[in-house]
Structure formats: C-alpha cells, structure tokens
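I'm stuck. Protein, please.
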Amino acid sequence: MRITAAELCKQVGGELAGSGDAVIERVASLTAAGPGDVTFARREHLKSVATSRAAAVLVPERVPGARAAQIVVPNPYFAFLKVLAMAEREQRCHPVGIHPTAVIGEGVSLGEGVALGPHAVVGDHCVIGAGAILHPNVTLGAHCVIGEGALLYPNVAVREHCVIGKRTIIHCGTTIGGDGFGYLQVEGRHVKVPQVGIVEIGDDVEIGCNCTIDRATMDKTVIENGVKIDNHSHIAHNCRIGEHSMLIAYARMGGSTVVGKGVLMAEDVGLTNGITIGDRSILGAGTKVLRSWPANSVLLGFPAQRMGDEKRQIILIRRLPKLYQAVKNIQKRLGMTASEGEG
C-alpha cells in the first residue's frame, strides 16, 4: 500500500489537518505506529496522538501539536476498517484463473472470473457463481451451488448438494454438510440413520476455521444471511440460525435447535437438542442452555438462567466461607457440636 494522506482522506471522506503529502505504506496500532504508518485513535486515546510518530492518524477531532497528519472523521475505527480492507487486498494472495491441477467434474457451470487453486476438486454438476474463489485443496461434492463472490480458503470441504450464498467466506479446515449424528438403538446396537438433507448457507455469512455444520437428516440445516460463526464451532443437523446472529468460538448446537435473529452467543456456549432461542437474546460465556427461552433473554450459567439471577448466586456462593465460619462461631458460643448443628 502506498498512498498520501490527502488521497486517503478522500477515500474515507474525512477532513485533513496537517501535511497531505505524508506517504502511508502500512497500517499499525496507535502505540506501535511509526513513520510510514497510518493508525486511528478513539476519543479516550487522543492524548497519545500528540506524541505519535505515525505518518497519519484518523481522529474524531483535531489534536493540537500533533506531528502526524490528522484525518478527522466521525468514527475513526469505522473509517480505519476501509484502510484495513485496502491493506488486506494487497496482503492476501488469492488464486487467479483455473490452476492446471484443479479437477472439474462433468456438467459443471463456472461463472465469469471464477478462480480454482491448486488441487481444488469440483464435483459433477456444481454451479459456481461469478467471481467465486476456491483456494488450494477445496473440495466440492456433486451438485453444490456456490454463490457469486464466495471465498473458500484452503482445505474447506462442502459435501454434495449443499448451497453457499453470495459473498460468503469460509475459512480453512471447515466442513459443510458432513453427516448429522443420528443413530437408532436396535437390540443393543447403534443403527445409523441416513442423512439425506442438505446445508443451506445464506449471503454474507462468515464461518471460521475448523467448524462443522452437519447436513439435515431430511430437509435443511439453515444458516441465514449475515450470520458470523467463529472458529471451532459445531452446528448439528436440522439446526437453523437466524440472520445476523453471531456465534463466538467453540459454540455448539444440538440437533434441531433454532436460534433466532440477532442473537449473540459468547464463547463456549452449548445448546441442547430441539430448543429455541428467541430473537436478540444474549448468551454469556460458558452458558449451557437446556430449555427454550423467549426473545431478548440475557442468560448465563449452567443450567442457563437470567444473567441477573446467576450473578446474584455467584456473589452468594463467594460469601459461603464467611457464612460457614459465622455458623461455627455461633455453635461454639452455644456449646453445640458440629453434629448437633447439622441435626
């Protein structure tokens, strides 16, 4: 990246204070930024701008005496995302064109500008939309549909008949459409239930590394538009996640569970089979949910309960040692033995 402060100011729609000729080549944090770097400062960190060695700083208001060129914008971090996107485009090396080692099955439809990296495998009768990129070793089973502009990083596997939406990003090592965990107990044996449904993932979804989203036994496992799923998460068969929900690392959902729209699941949350979490609910870290909850619930604990109740219980539990000691002191003054106190 090589751009002047004046050019960058136009890109982000800001107001320039200082030299527009300052040359920007890299992005950096406020504390680490030096010559050639651009960074940003929130309002609470503006004191650090005055001594910053950065070439340019995105700020919500001018800072007197700053050496760096200042680009004044209402929301510096949001504007800085545009700068990060510019740096990312230069940093990431996506495949271009069809690599000679890619394997393409019969009846495949490739849109304009599709890129297939080394050893990518596309099964029979797949449809890949314009501008989609498959990195090395991506595998698509037969009859998959990949939307326009989708980006699949190395070693992603999408099993047969699954659907990936437009502009969806799937990171390394994730598997879409593996068999759901379904067995019937017959005479002491586990008899496998065939899994013949699909996974359908909407537009603008992002799925982290090493996630697993199982195909439905019948019908569909559905991830709606705008959902974000962090690394190492597991979505079981026949689940549905509503649009713009966010699942942070190690989220786990049992079969046929439904998560509403705009739900936030913090790290290491687990949902049991067949329950429903209402729209806009928030599930705190480590929460284990064993029943359905309505919209706008804020939950914490195992088993999950309303966050306020769980916090009160945590405070009371921490007071137990003092309470126990107080009871022992009372027993001692009354001349009671421990066994009498227990009775």
User: Anything to note?
Assistant: The CA atoms of residues 273 and 297 lie 19 Å apart.
